[in-house]
Amino acid sequence: MSRFFSEKYKNLVPYVPGEQPQEIKYLKLNTNESPFPPSKGVAEAVAAEAERLQLYSDPDSKELTAKIAEVYGVKPSQVVVTNGSDEVLNFAFMAFADEKRPLAFPNITYGFYTVFADINHIPYTEIPLRCDFTINPEDYTGINKNIVIPNPNAPSGYELPLTDIEKIVASNPDNLVIIDEAYVDFGAESAVPLINKYDNLFVTQTFSKSRSMAGARLGFGIASEELISDINTIRYSTNPYNINRMTAAAGYAALCDNDYYMKNCRIIEENREQAASELKKLGFTVLPSKANFIFAKSERISGEKLYTELKKRGILIRHFDKEIIRDYNRITIGTQAQMEKLVQTVKEILEEQEG
Fold this sequence. Notes:
By secondary structure, the chain is of the alpha/beta class. It has a seven-stranded mixed β-sheet, with helices on both faces. A four-stranded antiparallel β-sheet has the order 9-10-13-12, covered by helices on one side. It folds into two domains: about 15-35 and about 260-355, Aspartate Aminotransferase, domain 1 (Alpha-Beta Complex), CATH 3.90.1150; about 40-255, Aspartate Aminotransferase, domain 2 (3-Layer(aba) Sandwich). The chain has helices at about 40-50, 60-70, 85-95, 110-120, 160-170, 225-235, 245-255, 260-280, 305-310, 335-355, and strands at about 25-30, 80, 105, 125, 145-150, 175-180, 200-205, 220-225, 285, 295-300, 315, 320, 330.
């Protein structure tokens, strides 16, 4: 830390992204990227837009915003487009939470929530999950705090039923409820249909997972027109050109090819269930997931040891040091061949350790 670093950030603990090694080619099952490439239409749209990079992008991303609204059955004025869903989450924290309006979210969840809260000086409460890693909706009912819930949650993959989400939203009418749906396309139910019923509901999604665009950085929020207007006040006060030309074109093209991506999501769901079944045969505990990953542990090997041994063999998964989940690993779902390789390698590691 330099002597010039602001005092207000001296205790800030930054978010640690998943490994993105450059020197060795790994089978990457650690950062929940799609194993499928973008559609041909996306590649063509990006190439065409690259020829116009001398021009600023549209600060309102009008075409992309309209297309999102069309696909999700809302008005364009109910949509905001951002540089990944991380940006819209940060904007929401900035816009709606402060010392008088604190936040609440699960204690085991997406690690960026605490960072966004800390950097914006927002008090927050981390609400413990149940012993089985599920969210208890009663813990969020009528608590009179702004609430952030990922659905499905990460790293567990558990889905909170839409009836429970509505109960939480309805019981906190004077506070914002953010539902982070980064993984919703892999079998969960979206809360977007509720936004016209509840003006305190804010739903975020991303193109990173289900639409094969993690490298493009594109996310969006859907909410009432008033909430979106507030977010745009923050956006225009920080970076109105937050979506570059190529990303906007890629997002529009991806939505035009939406059937391709939703078909891939169904394949990932099938691969997820098959991989979970095979790991269970090896004695693993695998939590039921509605995301593009599974959360698994084994009594035969520690979570850290399995992560280390797989990495030696060219396979990356995600291990967390937090005490309550350190026995588990989060494993991204890839192609059928990739998951078969993972299972076979795990089997070999267990046999070597016990041989």
